[in-house]
Each structure stands twice: as C-alpha cells, then as structure tokens.
Amino acid sequence: MIKNIGPLERKVLEILWNKKQATARDISNSLEQIGERRAYSTVRTIIKRLVDKKIIAETTNYDDRTFIYVPLLSKEELEKIIVRSVLGELLSRFKLSTISYLAEELSDNEKEIKKIKQKLNEMKRNE
Predict the structure, then answer these.
(1) Closest C-alpha to 52, from 79, 22, 72
(2) Which of 27, 52, 81, 122 is most buried, most CB within 10 Å of its CB?
(3) Among candidates 93, 92, 88, 48, which has minimal Cα distance to 67?
(4) What is the pLDDT of residues 56-93, one digit of tens each?
(5) 7-71, CATH topology level
C-alpha cells in the first residue's frame, strides 16, 4: 500500500505524467531544467523506488538497451490511493478526532458540505 511519496519522487512523477514516458537520462535532464540538479545515481534511486512501489513501470528499449519508464497510475489515481491510505489509518486510530477535524475544516465550505451530503445519501440508497 502506498502511504506517501517524497518531494523528489513527486517531481519525477510530474515529469513522467507530462512526457508519458522517459529514460532516466530524460528525467535527470528535466529535473535539471526545473532547478533540481541531482546526481544521476540519485535520480536512478528515486526511479527504482517508484518502480518498487508499482507507481511506474520499467520497460526495455532493445535497440539501444536503455530502460524506459512509464507511469502506471495517473496523478488522480495516486492521490486517491494516498488519501484513502492516510485517512483510513487516521480513522482506525483516531476516529472521533479525525471526523471532528474534517467537519471543522469543511464547515465553512458550503459546496463541499453539499457534495458530502450527496455522497452520504447515495451510499444510503445503495445499502
């Protein structure tokens, strides 16, 4: 289960989401262009972590024997997984405090309250 991603992992993912696929060298060059100059070995380590977490996949370009990386999850899918994981853990450990905090945070946003009510009503109908 993916619980979180680090800031550099996030930047690598942003690059892959924009490019759709890239080599480690492409990713390293793109990071440098946005002011994130990192050793190539560091970039490879971050890529390996993302592969291990099954957020990106590694394929081989047999013509020049390079690895090409592609995202397995969209940004929205990844965010949903992380939120579900973190919120699920918070609810299991601190149910009342978590619910109270969320209610307080959303209390000023009528649009969000309306969405939550609609979702709760939808869930009731599907029981």
Answers:
(1) 72
(2) 27
(3) 48
(4) 999 998 888 899 999 999 999 999 999 999 999 999 99
(5) Arc Repressor Mutant, subunit A (1.10.10)
